[in-house]
DNA sequence: TTGAAAGCGCTAACAT
DNA sequence: ATGTTAGCGCTTTCAA
């Protein structure tokens, strides 16, 4: 006996395949007696539905694809974990779309909705992964998509993230409140909206405090430890060194602190370092990292919930959803 | 125009659907002229194959499922990233099976091969996620599965990991070579083979060095920062404290070092700490962590390659594959 | 309450 | 080289 299907059940239970199908999906439409008979037969033949067939027939794969720059990034992996959790609880599976930042791969993964392998997309990128131009943009042949952490700029899709501008302002202000005046910044990829917004917030907080924005104090990088490592060197090479460095991610901060230590600088005694994200490791670092906590779990959960609702035809109430961040002051920053 | 299928192409190109199918999949079976005609028509109608239909027909989903305890764990996420990479390069997608250690979820995800949503399984657990007993174990109705990092004990499935016993011996020996005699250990979940093997290696290295195994020096935990945090306290409470602590994962080591610091102990001056895994953060910690480097990328790649080959009907050469680990001495351990 | 039958969109014999 | 046709395993009208 190779592969038991509903027709095997039907044969064994002495009913039609239609009845089997009903008994399994729509119990109320068959008599109690047949239902039991069918269930017993299903059990007996060791039935497992072929979900490919179900999906083809119902035009629903019950998969979503999460398009994410890098699963191995601590911040990202937290988000995706939360996504998987709610997807699973609602009977969906998540297809992993690790793009390593490649626009081409973003498009490939996004195409999975066209090819019916996925019913929707959670996009953690600032790029729209398909042509809106080419064809008519009849809003309803766009796939269900929710934009997480980043923002494509297209309001046809709901997006969820923190208010990066405000968060960066809070971070910068914390440093200013601590008496710092020469506050450097190490950014993420400036293509990304998150990084642009943080840069804007940084700048604005400076201005509001009457501090001059000094271009030589910002190093444009990307969200990675290696970047922080190198960027810190550039900062250290300056004649007038910063007394504080605002890193646009905790990973950057980690690399930054490493370099500082290499050259004999103490954090926070010589230089204060501020991170962003509050990855799980942040509080365990030496010194524990002052940072902006993102509600990672909440972001992931909200993205997934929104998407699944979208798939079910429910329109979101707010298209642009901002979740609350929080300044977490630990030991990597100190009053001047 | 809603959904272009091969029959739309056929109509437009003035050929049969079979010819379209051939032109698309099997170009050599069709004349150059028709091939071009078909391609043009496909382009014109904006064709994207319905992979659900293809999969149903060919009985191949081109998905694999990665069953993993926790995507947010740095070690795990490295593995899964490598898996995704090779899967993608071979035209497969990976379904994320984050189990949070739950055997039930392991089984749920494993069932995806039965329901045809996945063609194979990469299992990072020591438990077999389905009944081998119940039915006849006719080896060929087992799904393609490769066991990564852990070992179920079933040699019907290929497995790939490092030699945990040897690696733990190397780690312990390093501490012994440094003159340590009271060497504590903080283990992972002792249900897991990796942790049992490491415990065995630890013990064996002790014995070979003529050191007595002291049960009070081992704290049984799990692979998490929180665990390391708490376990370290237990160790510190002992009358005769260890001079070195061998943590069975870097995350444990991180938590352990944190607690040590809390209580004013310096690593490595007062106590040496050794990790395991060499997660990307390890070298950036303060102090940089001495650890056993696992070939994460290689493990992931090998798992995926093996599985995909298995799916293609190629039998693996070795059922139990050990990849080389490496002792990485940094600054968290020091000679006594 | 149950069943017959028509597909979902595609592939793969088998014919032509 | 191209076309006909029979399904893959299931859901879902529609009729009985």
Q: Which features characterize this protein?
A:
homodimer, 336 residues, alpha/beta, six-stranded parallel β-sheet, four-stranded parallel β-sheet, 12 strands, 14% strand, elongated, DNA-binding
The profile of the biggest β sheet of chain A is: 6 strands, parallel
Greatest interface: A-B, 51 and 51 residues
How do the strands of the widest beta sheet of chain A line up side by side? 2-1-3-4-5-11
> How would you describe the shape of chain A?
elongated
Low-confidence stretches of chain A: none
Would you count the extended β strands of chain A for me? 12
Radius of gyration of chain A: 26 Å
Q: How many distinct helices of chain A?
A: 11
Distance between the termini of chain A: 77 Å
State the oligomer.
homodimer
Helix content of chain A: 40-55%
Strand percentage of chain A, roughly? 5-15%
How does the helix and strand content of chain A classify structurally? alpha/beta
The ordered H/E elements of chain A are: HHHHEHEHEEEHEHEHEHEEHEE
Average pLDDT, all residues of chain A: 95
Write the topology of this structure.
2 copies of one chain form a homodimer.
Chain A (H helix, E strand, L loop, with lengths): L5 H8 L3 H9 L6 H14 L5 H8 L4 E6 L5 H16 L3 E6 L4 H12 L5 E4 L21 E4 L10 E4 L1 H14 L5 E4 L6 H16 L9 E2 L5 H12 L7 E4 L2 H13 L9 E3 L16 E3 L2 H16 L8 E4 L2 E3 L8
Parallel strand pairs in A: 1-2, 1-3, 3-4, 4-5, 5-11, 6-7, 6-8, 8-9
Antiparallel strand pairs in A: 10-12
The structure holds a DNA duplex (16 and 16 nucleotides).
């Amino acid at each position: 006996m190779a592969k038991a299907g509903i027709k095997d059940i039907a044969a064994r239970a002495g009913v039609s395949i239609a009845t089997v199908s009903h008994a399994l999906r729509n119990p109320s439409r068959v008599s109690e007696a047949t239902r039991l008979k069918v269930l017993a037969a299903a059990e007996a033949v060791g039935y497992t539905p072929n979900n490919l067939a179900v999906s083809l027939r119902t035009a629903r794969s019950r998969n979503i694809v999460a398009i994410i720059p890098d699963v191995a990034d601590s911040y990202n992996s937290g988000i995706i974990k939360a996504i998987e959790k709610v997807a699973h609880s609602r009977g969906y599976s998540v297809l992993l779309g690790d793009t390593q930042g490649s626009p081409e791969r973003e498009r490939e993964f996004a195409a999975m909705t066209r090819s019916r392998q996925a019913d929707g997309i959670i996009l953690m990128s600032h790029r729209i992964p398909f042509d809106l131009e080419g064809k008519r943009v009849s809003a309803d042949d766009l796939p269900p998509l929710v934009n997480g952490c980043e923002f494509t700029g297209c309001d046809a899709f709901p997006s969820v993230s923190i208010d990066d501008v405000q968060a960066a302002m809070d971070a910068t202000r914390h440093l200013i409140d601590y008496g710092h005046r020469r506050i450097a910044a190490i950014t993420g990829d400036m293509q990304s909206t998150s990084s642009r917004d943080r840069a804007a917030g940084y700048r604005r907080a400076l201005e509001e405090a009457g501090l001059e924005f000094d271009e030589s104090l910002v190093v444009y990088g990307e969200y990675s430890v290696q970047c922080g490592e190198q960027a810190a060197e550039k900062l250290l090479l300056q004649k007038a060194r910063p007394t504080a460095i605002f890193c646009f991610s905790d990973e950057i901060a980690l690399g930054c602190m490493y370099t500082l230590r290499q050259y004999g600088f103490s954090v926070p005694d010589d230089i204060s370092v501020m991170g962003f994200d509050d990855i799980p490791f942040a509080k365990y670092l030496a010194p524990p990292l002052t940072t902006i906590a993102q509600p990672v779990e909440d972001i992931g959960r909200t993205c997934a919930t929104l998407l699944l609702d979208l798939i079910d035809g429910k329109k979101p109430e707010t298209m642009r959803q901002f979740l609350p961040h929080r300044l977490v002051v630990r030991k990597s920053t100190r009053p001047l």
